[in-house]
Design a protein that fits this description.
Blueprint: E1 5-6, H1 11-20, E2 25-30, E3 36-40, H2 46-58, E4 62-64, H3 70-83, H4 88-97, H5 102-112, H6 114-139, E5 141-142, H7 146-158, H8 163-172, H9 176-180
Parallel strand pairs: 1-5
Antiparallel strand pairs: 2-3, 2-4
Helix pairs in contact: 1-6, 3-4, 4-5, 5-6, 6-7, 6-8
Length: 181
């Protein structure tokens, strides 16, 4: 894509913003200035969020950071747990996902198992990289970073076979023509 612009912001910072975005946070990135805004959505933070939302109408370049929907994250956690070898850790994660408050229980199991937590962080980072690549492709932005290039290659290679990528691409406003030209 010859008309892409270099994204403003450090890859690691923007990637972290995308990785940590959730339905419970208000996360935005200004692709023109590189400025980022993230606050946990709560009653105590309401005034901060409202003040920031006023800026969204006054300043250009702000984009809400797309987050992984709860159902999709739950499916990703389940896939991760099922892909582990048979053992106590796998059964603990699957049990955590089968009860009340599965996200909290899943994280609690990972806190007790550092090796498993590192593998989960790798999966979560890869998912965030793909989501960030899809967003950037939709905005015609790019990063000069090897992880970005790898994520773009993955997205392009799996475009037609991946329902998850198709859903993210549709929500980011990316047209199919950008992928096929």
């Amino acid at each position: 894509m010859a008309d892409e612009q270099r994204a403003v912001g450090l890859w690691d910072d923007v990637h972290t913003l995308f990785r940590d975005a959730s339905p419970m946070t208000c996360s935005h990135w200004n692709t023109e200035t590189g400025e980022m805004f993230k606050v946990r959505s709560s009653r105590r933070q309401r005034a901060i969020v409202e003040a920031f939302e006023a800026r969204l109408f006054e300043e250009e370049g702000w984009h809400e950071v797309p987050f992984l929907e709860s159902d999709d994250e739950f499916a990703l956690m389940g896939d991760f747990a099922r892909e582990l070898g048979r053992g106590k850790g796998r059964s603990e994660l699957l049990a955590a996902l089968d009860g009340d408050k599965p996200f909290r229980r899943f994280r609690n199991v990972l806190k007790k198992r550092p090796g498993m937590a590192r593998r989960w962080r790798k999966v979560a980072n890869e998912e965030a990289s793909v989501r960030l690549a899809i967003f950037c492709l939709g905005q015609e932005l790019s990063f000069d970073h090897p992880e970005f290039a790898e994520a773009v290659s993955l997205v392009r290679a799996e475009w037609e076979s991946s329902e998850r990528a198709e859903g993210l691409i549709v929500t980011s406003g990316l047209s199919l023509s950008k992928w096929t030209n």
